[in-house]
Amino acid sequence: MKIVAISALFAAAAYLLPTTVVDPLVRVLGIAIALMATGIFPCMTLVVNAMKGEQRTPAMVDKLYDGLRNILRILVVAFSLAVASILSLAATAALVAAKVPHLYVHIALASTAVAITFFAGRVIALGRSFFVVLDINRTQALLVARAKTRNEREEVIEAQRLATIFKDDPKPRALVKAQ
């Protein structure tokens, strides 16, 4: 609901802007949004390839899958909103160039502000989702590190036990039958 209130505020502010600012806004915001949208596809690829099951419990795999699926959904929506924002910017610029009545330009500016605000909201949600997956991976890494430490400790204990039992000969040998 916060994003709706914020987008309404930005839409009202954009509606009040003079039409002379449309061209500079389109030049700056169009490039910025396009650059962010360009980074979304590599992120999608990384998210899909992040699903590794090595040394994970089934519960951890499910938790990671849910987190990655959420991130992928946010990325797809963010890309769609980026495209909508760029199209809305282009339409607003076209309305200014066509010298249509200012009312239509102001309505286009307000709708562009709403699209950009929703896009920004998805980018923020994406950042939060990345931290959730980071926490999942940290938990799994800790489990793996603890298991490795436990195995190393058990190997040292076993080596000490064998050294105590077989003081002269560290390698146990088969008993030879007496003749």
What descriptors fit this protein?
mainly alpha, 179 residues
What do these coordinates show?
With 179 residues, the chain is mainly alpha-helical. It has one domain. The chain is built from five helices and no strands. α4 runs antiparallel to α5. It is rod-shaped, with a radius of gyration of 30 Å.
Number of DSSP strands?
0
Spans where pLDDT lies below 50 across 5 or more residues: none
Give the termini separation.
Answer: 91 Å
Major sheet description: none
Quaternary: single chain
Helix-strand pattern: HHHHH
Overall helicity:
over 70%
Structural class: mainly alpha
How large is the radius of gyration?
Answer: 30 Å
In DSSP terms (H or I, runs of 4 or more residues), the helix count works out at 5
What's the structural domain tally? 1
What do the pLDDT scores average to? 82
Please tell me what the overall shape is. rod-shaped
As a percent range, the share of strand residues is: under 5%
